[in-house]
Amino acid sequence: GAVVSQHPSRVICKSGTSVKIECRSLDFQATTMFWYRQFPKQSLMLMATSNEGSKATYEQGVEKDKFLINHASLTLSTLTVTSAHPEDSSFYICSARGDGATQYFGPGTRLTVL
Amino acid sequence: GEDVEQSLFLSVREGDSSVINCTYTDSSSTYLYWYKQEPGAGLQLLTYIFSNMDMKQDQRLTVLLNKKDKHLSLRIADTQTGDSAIYFCAEFPTEGSNTGKLIFGQGTTLQVKP
């Protein structure tokens, strides 16, 4: 149980385009989902927290107009990187939490912006 | 504030025990977690311990918690080459600005030599 999927696993796009990443909880309802960014050989950096049906809460320094988050249902959250630039290239990981405290993580999405 | 510290690297021989240490700062943390990350993958929940416990054992994994010293350790018995990965310690504060979020350490890279 407690499986979280992400799609796509890898994406390469041109500078200036927008990219959408999906995060799904497959076997439980996720009241809260989290989006993280991870740079090579570093820990996870929390970008935002989203609760189903409400606006996401962004961490300090994360541009909400750049990283659009939608948590439309209890099993799906999406992160859209708008007008992507090479500095947005990174590994993006989502996690989902049900009724308890434990977060279950997706497999990650590798974004490369050319 | 919340801060989680881990040593960055540990090297052991196959068959030996591995001990990964972690210190945290937030005494309000009710859960403490160990996650495993293999190259290019997301985080896999290994185990967690509730703050009123001293020890938890799950097959080859033993977690020890010293709440007074805010010290957490993960022992892997009979370490295998498949255990080579990055191990993240995380605390779950229940007070303050980071309530409900996971605070991660920098990760410990475990190298298992055959």
Distance between the termini of chain A: 37 Å
Largest interface summary: A-B, 21 and 20 residues
- How do the helices and strands follow one another from N- to C-terminus of chain A? EEEEEEEEEEE
Major beta sheet summary of chain A: 7 strands, mixed
Strand percentage of chain A lies at over 45%
Count helical runs of chain A: 0
Major sheet description of chain B: 6 strands, mixed
Determine the fraction of residues in helical runs of chain B and give it as a percent range. Answer: under 10%
Quaternary state of the chains: heterodimer
Order of secondary-structure elements of chain B: EEEEEEEEEEE
Q: Cα distance, first to last residue of chain B?
A: 41 Å
The shape of chain A is globular
Radius of gyration of chain B: 14 Å
Structural class of chain B: mainly beta
**Helix-and-strand structural type of chain A:** mainly beta
Number of helices of chain B: 0
Report Rg of chain A: 13 Å
Query: Runs of chain B with pLDDT <50, length 5+?
Result: none
> Which range best describes the helical content of chain A: under 10%, 10-25%, 25-40%, 40-55%, 55-70% or over 70%?
under 10%
Q: How large is the share of residues in beta strands of chain B?
A: over 45%
Roughly what is the average pLDDT of chain A, rounded to an integer? 94
